[in-house]
């Protein structure tokens, strides 16, 4: 899958980090960083993270099958 985060929308709330810490984290300066192409096994977590983001900044594109 592919994940994009619109950093113009992201307000560093961190809900995505709690929902899917395998994918999302904060760097040393509290900027959100994320895996751009995480394993498809993490799809449920990625979609959960996208759903809890209060500003809908996360887009999850499942791999074409
Ligand atoms: S939940 Fe949304 S606003 Fe919060 S850090 Fe993640 S992408 Fe940014």
From TrEMBL:
Function: Ferredoxins are iron-sulfur proteins that transfer electrons in a wide variety of metabolic reactions.
NAD in keyword set: no
Name this polypeptide is given: Ferredoxin
Keywords (A to Z) from UniProt: 3Fe-4S, Electron transport, Iron, Iron-sulfur, Metal-binding, Transport
Classification via InterPro entries: 3Fe4S_ferredoxin, Fe-S_cluster_ET
Organism: Streptomyces leeuwenhoekii
Taxonomy, superkingdom: Bacteria
Cofactor: [3Fe-4S] cluster
């Amino acid at each position: 899958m592919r994940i994009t985060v619109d950093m113009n929308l992201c307000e560093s709330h961190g809900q995505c980090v709690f929902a899917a810490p395998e994918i999302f984290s904060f760097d040393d300066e509290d900027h959100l960083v994320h895996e751009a192409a995480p394993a498809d096994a993490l799809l449920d977590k990625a979609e959960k993270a996208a759903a809890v983001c209060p500003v809908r900044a996360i887009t999850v594109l499942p791999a074409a099958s």
